[in-house]
Amino acid sequence: MTKEKIKVGIMGFGVVGTGTYKVLTENSEMVKNQTGAEIVVEKVFVRDRHKRRAVEIPESLLTTNPEDIIDNPEIDIAVELMGGQEPAYSYMMRALDNGKHVVTANKELMAKKGRSILEKADSAGVGLGFEASVCGGIPIIRAFKRSLCTDKVERIMGIVNGTTNYILTKMAQECSSYEDALKEAQARGYAEADPTADVEGYDAAYKMAILASIGFHSKVDINMVRREGISKVGKRDIECGKELGWTIKLLGIAEETEGGLEVKVSPVMLPMEHPLASVNGVNNAVFVNSEAVGELMFYGPGAGQMATGNSVASDIMEIARQIASENKMLPNCSCFADKVFAEECSSSFYIRLNAMNKPGVLGRIAGVFGSFGVSLESVLQKKTEGESAEIVWITSKVKESSFNKALESIKSLDAVNEVCSIIRVEANGHC
Amino acid sequence: MTKEKIKVGIMGFGVVGTGTYKVLTENSEMVKNQTGAEIVVEKVFVRDRHKRRAVEIPESLLTTNPEDIIDNPEIDIAVELMGGQEPAYSYMMRALDNGKHVVTANKELMAKKGRSILEKADSAGVGLGFEASVCGGIPIIRAFKRSLCTDKVERIMGIVNGTTNYILTKMAQECSSYEDALKEAQARGYAEADPTADVEGYDAAYKMAILASIGFHSKVDINMVRREGISKVGKRDIECGKELGWTIKLLGIAEETEGGLEVKVSPVMLPMEHPLASVNGVNNAVFVNSEAVGELMFYGPGAGQMATGNSVASDIMEIARQIASENKMLPNCSCFADKVFAEECSSSFYIRLNAMNKPGVLGRIAGVFGSFGVSLESVLQKKTEGESAEIVWITSKVKESSFNKALESIKSLDAVNEVCSIIRVEANGHC
């Protein structure tokens, strides 16, 4: 007999949990019409039964015992929206052991333990959805898994963290300092009291590990992602970038290079004409280059109760449709390849430094770059103040090791007072 | 026993057919790894066996007899890439009658006969994919069917025709006339010798009928789509738009209004800041407003051998994965709702007219607008030449019937020499 009700247990009832509940209950008729069965939230695991919620929910659904979901034979789909590693991971694995389908929004867990989770799900023959783990409301995981699955992805460039994009947008549009923009982000609830996970690029690195794994069919370990945050980006760099026709974004980039797969997160100078350059505020966007399709961009809200809740709900519905048709679940893991990782990255760089305002200094610095094989695209003497001069250098695409050696040597020159900033440049990202 | 080979027959071997063949053969290993079975092109139906092809293909695969595909019990998936209504429709229906899964890129057929095709597919329990029928390489159908399926779509705005977007981009960027831009588009192969289907909005209307049907879960008959092309857009309107901070795009818009569902295709003045405004050349983009997610945009190539070929291939793979798992096909049709269609549209309008350069004329015209209840946002006297003056009017959002009555009355004024152009304005599309 075909199942008439598919029962869901939600673990964690914060922003995303309440959003998921709202989407599923408010749109239940529409969902039922497409699923062929009713999707019912049967239990919600919370830490505190009496906490005030952003959503109305019958008392009877709440439980403080996770076993009411993960060990409950009535539950078909366990939805993990608690975040963090533990106890989320243990709950998820136990739910899988018990033959439950799992949907999660947990980027940290998918980035760190994705392989073991997916393998367990596949060997149990259950579904595992994680659309909500990357870019909130943008259906980017499904785009890779169901549409770009027949294509060869060459490069993924993403603005995958809304907090840092908000800060950089504010710095660019209102000439704010990093500190002021961060304060504003905290006041609006976009940044945490301890903003490290966002501003130092950890959150973006998790998301890029997930996107790169799916896009390149190869498990990307979070340790393989080079990571750099935005806390060193100065107001002055944004100004200099503007004069060059560039804007600064915290970009995740995953690409196949001659040396292997490269995945990195860092501030990047991007030409104003690039489609990613006009993605502002807390929005996210992922720009993909692939062999057959060419250029695609997916743009939308990177977070939010309802937006992320919808991504969770769509994963639940995808699994529910298979259950309603009494189908086997399709394999979840698509990481069949074992790509080599690049030992080192190549990039163009923007370097802003402060040097003595004396004849011959420019030439001496240029000479050091040259002696380490770092060729230069341009040099701009920005302003001089008494005895010192601000100079901006743009290099060609160079190996990071050569660049770093040149930089060490430049720092040790008497004529160089300070190397103020170093930012990657992506001048040719968009053809 | 699980199927090891899933056999595909391709009908039509032009641009999209050869692209599909290339994607499937060049990426066969990757596809097999994800599908759990090999996808093999078994037969290709062509009109002329000896025609030179853009792709190398074994002679033995070619056939001039469509029955080698539609009646061939070996074939699992029949892929219709012939275009047009007949014989494509008959072949497709016979393939469905014979229990074959069908994948098509045929927007005209899906817009005109979508309901009968989907109903037959569902009653036969087979899969029916049509991702390639809208926006070439952009996975927009799947985004609606698998991700926005749990959300309430409020509005779809799309640049869904590359040819007209190329022409309008050229007019805007190079101050070309419509005629010159069209010639250039024809020279580059973007426009046909008879460009009617593109420039008069028929192609865009097919695509909007499909998108609106899926987005609003309600079969949108092609006759319900209001359609207007770009052939009357003047160089001068693009100039005037620029001064107002607007750009002109041929937009498909589908939205729920108080009066019901409205679907239309027409040139639209769009603010430069809108994400769709910077979609240039032959690119396509679809901008969606929905209740939970908010704003999403999908951007990419609207046509092309490999891009559209990939959309076809991804549909084939989706069906093949279910076959490989010995699953039932999930229902294809999601048009469970029966929405009421709006009897008339409301819009803001831009009107450029030529009137006598005399005191009192502005006031008289404004009076006529007012007497038909059409309120005005702004009036701009653009330039005067001797006895005549060019005047641009921007109305508030008004009912089209009131607007048309006002316009008739204005045309009959002695002081009005000519109404040069009328273009819709979408000033509030993006919040």
TrEMBL record, chains A, B:
Cofactor(s) named in the record: a metal cation
Keywords: Amino-acid biosynthesis, Methionine biosynthesis, NADP, Oxidoreductase, Threonine biosynthesis
Reactions mediated catalytically: L-homoserine + NADP(+) = L-aspartate 4-semialdehyde + NADPH + H(+)
InterPro entries to which the protein is assigned, alphabetical: ACT-like_dom_sf (IPR045865), ACT_dom (IPR002912), Asp/hSer_DH_NAD-bd (IPR005106), HDH (IPR016204), HDH_cat (IPR001342), HDH_CS (IPR019811), NAD(P)-bd_dom_sf (IPR036291)
Segments forming domain ACT: 350-430
Similarity remark: Belongs to the homoserine dehydrogenase family.
UniProt protein name: Homoserine dehydrogenase
Organism: Lutispora saccharofermentans
Taxonomic path: Bacteria, Bacillati, Bacillota, Clostridia, Lutisporales
